[in-house]
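A favour, since you know our structure tokens better than I do. Go ahead and set the record down below.
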Amino acid sequence: MKKRALISVFNKDGILELASFLAGAGWEILSTGGTSKHLQGNGIPVTDVTEVTGFPECLDGRVKTLHPAVHAGLLARRDVPSHMETLKKLNLSTIDLVCVNLYPFFEKVQAGLSLEETVEFIDIGGPTMLRSAAKNYHDVIVLTDPADYAETIAGIKADSIPVEFKKRLAGKVFDLTSAYDAAIARYLLEEEYPEYWPLSLKKAQSLRYGENGHQSAALYVNTDKPGALGNMEQLHGKELGYNNIRDLDLAWKAACAFGLADAGTAPIGEDDIKALGLSNTADKKQICCVAVKHNTPCGIALGDTLLEAYEKTFACDPVSIFGGIVASNVKLNAAVAKQLGELFLEIVIAPDFDDDALEILKKKKNLRIMKARRAPREIHEYIAVDGGLLVQQGDRKLFEKWEVVTKAQPEAADIKDMIFGMRAITFVKSNAILIVKDEAATGIGGGQVNRIWPTEQSLKRSKKVVGDGKPPRVLASDAFFPFADVVETAAAAGIKAIVQPGGSVNDKLSIEACDKHGIAMVFTGTRHFKH
């Protein structure tokens, strides 16, 4: 019996070579629509699927291959006599190879089309044929990836295609269609937490190793909702590693927390601040610089210029920045590049770079230079647990309230620093304490199992500051104080204003301690744990 192959592809890479080989080997080529015209236009004989089904294409091409003559030919098991007798009785023939790739829903869902236009790129016939062929992989070769054409040709030439290879091809079908269906589900669902959580991710690259050398790793990016990472361009340097990507992600999110003015994105919590009548920074371009080491900020600051912001960031921790990552939310210039060039850094990331800044930075052979084209946009955050996935909203709400709970009132400059501190602290591991002066972190303490330790650490680290030499006045905390010891320690170091969520059963003790030392304290009602 003559072998038959059904070919219907949107991506035509390599298809002429495959179809030409099959035709030359005596296979009958079945095809539809644009693929049929493409093959015939290149001299490859084709049988239209309508000749097999005896039924014309209809509904503007929506129905072409959804027919028993196709699916019986795919699903019939050659080793089951009753299946083969049924085909003979119905005058149907087997189909021995299916080569199909799908309408470009991944691409079109990103194109900003209307709902009606986007829905038209949901492929129905393609996934159906692929699934039928994949279920019967012992008898049907099923191809979705041009990278598999050469091995398939070689196997047919040798008259020996291992069943394990066929099984792998079948697995790739369900790998593709599961991601395809997930992207469609993500697009159509309006539920924040649906019954089944759809993820549609494609491998962007294999990584040399994971967090440690003995751990394998790979990077996957969204097919349908490209985030900041998927749109970054590496301009220079070594390939990114697992730890680089994690740190890069945090650094860019922290920089963009203060807005990405050129992209029209406002700082996080801006609506909260406006609603509380604290300030209006939406029209102010907040120039931010962040230094990250081991997935936590070791410096973060705002400045009237990027150079000022960088110098304040560097001053927070001149030791830990070594081997770290520096991110800016504005175009990076030569003055800052010159300063960065004096350090050993893993990565520098910014929305863009001046030509002379690039020239300076590229003198560092291994320095990874990343151009970020967009601000982070993922609504949810994910944490893998054994056997499952924790899903939550991103931490974008800064304040629930602004309640001064002490006799002393914060000064205007303190309020700016308190707002800055609470934005910055959302990126520091809990328990987290930030000491702030002039919209810059001067001491960062985090990742501790109680609150007094990061308080002591951040105050100790904050002795060297940029500017007038006066000590910082503001302390920010990601969560409430369980005891008055934080206030007492802060008072001894000269802190004059504290911002924290409040909500402890011992809040009264902290308020009384603040009043005793003349410290202003504000409760925000919003906790910012980061585990």
Summary: Residues 163-188 form the longest helix (26 residues). The CA atoms of residues 137 and 168 lie 9 Å apart.
